[in-house]
Amino acid sequence: MALFPQEALQPGVRKREVFGWAMYDFANSGYTTVVITAVFAAYFVGGIAQKADWATFAWTAALSVSYAIVMLTMPSIGAYADLRAAKKRLLMITTAGCVAATAALAWAGPGSVALAIVLIIVSNTFYSWGESLTAAFLPELARAESLGKVSGWGWGFGYFGGMLALGICLGYVIWAQGQGIKAEQFVPVTMLVTAAIYGTASLVTFRLLKERAQPNPAALRQNGLRASLAQLRRTFAQARHYSDFMWLLACAVFYQGGVAVAIALAAIYAEQVIGFQPQETMVLIFVLNLAAAGGALAWGYFQDRIGHKLALGITLVGWVATCVIAAVTTTKGGFWYAAAIAGLCMGSSQSAGRAMAGMFAPQRQLGEFYGLWTFAIRLASIVGPLSYGAITWATGGNQRTAILSTAVLFVVGLLLLQKVNVQRGRAAALAADARQA
User: At 48, which CATH number?
Assistant: First the structure.
């Protein structure tokens, strides 16, 4: 059996186009890996904010502001993209915005807290808009029965992009430290490297990926924002027809909140609690990305075989174990076990959720439904890291209590997942397609 079978794709879709789509996951993974997880997060707390008691909370608050902006805007942006067939055009704009803001982070140094916060808000907002828009292409490329594996192709390949960016940055940091160069000098270079890789790799996406949607003729005669908001109101009014999608969104708010903690705070926890050095943290995140890539690729095939719901549920159990191990371990070796489990669960849980959302989305409302999906996961990205930061601040810097509390988010997500009926949710999407035909 071929690893990447043509039969997994929609009629008329060529593998080179899927490669172009997956290249966007490759391109943008460096941003989350280097900026949000491995390098800039820890530098913000330890270098820019000088390890102040409020530093971790300030970092999570900055991310939360960006996620709030995305949460409030992405559903209508998605509806606009559907009505105007503008997913690819908007993806180009959001990519340029994130690349520019990431490069500008090179200007943030010790004491420039306000500048760093503004640039993180701007860059992460553009990143999140782009992530939602690229996800909306998935059901146009993959057959319904293959959404898991095709989503896994993109997510797994994406982690290799993160590893490329982090690997180059790690090599430079090790050299710089050997030359006696300080963090305030070598961290800005890593931001420029990350921005360059993001911008360059995304050009492959824009060259190969097609905009298959057709504009709605009626929408072209209306104000774009007014038409998109009207379509969004109709979807919310019909929410009872998409109850399983709504339960999935509720589930995502909790489990993605826990995932967001791992992404935003792993490096901070490793350095501030376990005692990792910066280069050790970068190696840890590199290996975590390698495990995540393998998990996403393998789990995609497994997910299509055993079912989306069971596959996602298994990963959430793994996340609970990760939080408990990280909270109780006192050694670097013990934390490596937690990181290994987290890596396997990270790619698989995010890929599984993206594929399930595609199962429940009508073809003519892909941007809109993935906009709602983004609403949920960005709300999660506020709830998770902000609660972690608040608990850390309230307990006088006790991050062990904060990471243990994160396990509760995964448990609640697992309970809400039981409400989702995949067959019923897919039938609702197909019924909507029939009505719109």
Answer: 1.20.1250.20
